[in-house]
Amino acid sequence: MKQILILLILISTLVGSCQTKVSKTDFKKIEWLIGTWRGETNGQPFYEKWVKVSDTEFDNANYSICNGDTIKGGHSKIEIRNGKIAYTSDNLVWGLKELNDSMVIFESSEHRERFTFTKTSKGEWKANLKYPQSQVEYLLTKTFSISEILNEKPKLVEGYYEGYIEFMNKKLFTSINFQTTNGQQTATTSTPDNLQLNMPFNETCYNPPFIKLTLRDGTQNLELNGKLNGAELVGSLSGEIPAKVYFKKVATSNTRKNYTIVSLNIKNGDIVLPADLYLPISGKATGGVIMICGTGQHIKEEYNGWADLLASKGVAVLTYTKRNVTSFPNLSIRQASSDIVLPGQLESDIEAAINLLKGRKEIDSNKIGLFGFSQGAVLVPIVASKNKDVSFLIAVSGNVTTDKEFIINQSLNKLRQRNVDEVAIIETREIWNELFNYAKNKKNGSSVQKKLDKAYEKGFGRYSLPRQIPNDDEIKYLSTWNSFEHNPSNYWRKLSIPCYVVYGDNDLFIPVMQSVNILNTLFKYKPKLLTLKVYPKADHFIKKSIDRNNFDFPKYADNYISELTEWILGKAK
């Protein structure tokens, strides 16, 4: 739980104090802080436990509670340091500005920030955090000790809740299904308009009556904070759209699906990837589609919506969780800006998935297709150009320029979004080119690092460039450096199977028009094999860009789902 201490830790630099020498008697004036306090932030409770260590030091630990267990936050203290009272956390120090029997003020004159802790007439504690551009206030109340609070384990929440997310008078239908999995509180969510079905929340915390649910949606982390009152769950959603949420418990429908889901494992050497195979109930072999995700860590459940849609129409679908590409403690990866993976490893996982489908009697092995998103859309032509068992492919938002140009284009777009001047944009492109040269020949490293340092001093570097030149592990394992010479067009030109390619013309991640032009050139003499769609005002996820003047929730571009579904059915059934 992010709360008072976390906000304080964000304040940088060492702060001096203008106070004079104080005594232990002065320090006793703060003893009213001793004990356990409860406050709320973002609709969720948090706890602060102040302990008197000695006559010159009070320690503070911060907690939140999740499903009957504590989650530790930060740690701080108020102490007499060199004869002066100071608020400290790690190596940060805030000097005392004012002190009396019911109030203490810590201040940073350098950053024009002031933090006031006040004991109210009701025995509560009011914390006021004043920054140059904003002000935050909390009210904390004395409560039981943490151990007493945890004495009674909360009853887990179960049941199906339907409702909506609301912002600017627009509503988006959503449902949440609370479950108990291996004795733990879990939950999934479904948003039909976004093809999201039974997507597990990354975190489900219940501290009656408070519920916190977190979810990774595209490139955003969303957090739902609410209160459960009987059969109703009411709260708010953080993220790009600060919406209100309302859900009500209802009975689940027992609608029978015309497909079954088989849990499997895709085995590729020592790698085992959990998978789900959606099989239509038809009594005959059917074509199959393998869903292939983009950059970063992804789970098979992200594609439940597509799998449900296609399987219900008679096409088998295989989804699988991507191999670990984000966390390798034995490697020296300082800034994991791309997948930690060796060239060919992700492609070999796709090959293993194809082999799994070929071995199933329910699958027509002459109708196996690959369905890739973003990075996955770059991988599918590589595999399809080498594997004769692939009969068609779908590539959504896949770059067709060299990876080098793709990376540079993405970085420059980040600067353009911030209205950075053209000089900085030109300089960024030059630095990227020098970085790629260094990754290839390991020459002029100190010169490139000096240019990175200067770019960060100017400010634009932090939005568009790595902080340091890549080290040996990063050059070997980060896809930014080990694949930048990859040219997708070399594989697209070899294809002789039907291809369906999709872009949004508002995609800020990849060079859309360059990719479109390359594909049109490559398929000039085999036009019947290429179906190319560019949807207006759609982003990297083929969702309509948000219009603040005429707001609606991000939804897929008109006809994108229906047109693609019809094409797949024509190839796989």
Note the main attributes of this structure.
573 residues; alpha+beta; nine-stranded antiparallel sheet; 25% helix; globular
The 3D shape can be described as: globular
Percent strand equals 35-45%
Report helical residue fraction.
10-25%
Structural class: alpha+beta
Largest sheet data: 10 strands, antiparallel, barrel
Rg, alpha carbons: 28 Å
Number of H/I helices = 15
N-end to C-end Cα span: 49 Å
User: In which order are the strands of the major sheet placed?
Assistant: 1-2-3-4-5-6-7-8-9-10
Number of strands: 27
pLDDT < 50 stretches: 1-20
Average the pLDDT over all residues and give the rounded result: 90
Plain-language structure description:
With 573 residues, this protein is α+β, with helices and mostly antiparallel strands. The protein contains 15 helices and 27 strands. The chain has a ten-stranded antiparallel barrel. A nine-stranded antiparallel sheet has the order 14-13-12-11-19-18-17-16-15. Strands 20-21-23-22-24-25-26-27 form an eight-stranded mixed sheet, with helices on both faces. Strand 5 (84-89) and strand 6 form a beta hairpin. It is globular and about 90 Å long. The chain starts with a helix and ends with a helix.
Write the layout of secondary structure elements.
Elements: H1 4-9, H2 24-28, E1 35-41, E2 44-54, E3 57-66, E4 69-81, E5 84-89, E6 92-100, E7 103-108, E8 113-119, E9 125-130, E10 135-142, H3 146-149, E11 159-167, E12 170-181, E13 184-191, E14 196-200, E15 203-207, E16 210-217, E17 220-229, E18 232-238, E19 244-250, E20 259-268, E21 271-280, E22 286-292, H4 304-312, E23 316-320, H5 345-358, E24 363-373, H6 375-386, E25 390-396, H7 403-417, H8 422-441, H9 445-458, H10 461-464, H11 472-477, H12 479-482, H13 489-492, E26 499-504, H14 512-522, E27 530-535, H15 560-572
Parallel strand pairs: 22-23, 22-24, 24-25, 25-26, 26-27
Antiparallel strand pairs: 1-2, 1-10, 2-3, 3-4, 4-5, 5-6, 6-7, 7-8, 8-9, 9-10, 11-12, 11-19, 12-13, 13-14, 15-16, 16-17, 17-18, 18-19, 20-21, 21-23
Helix pairs in contact: 5-6, 7-8, 8-9
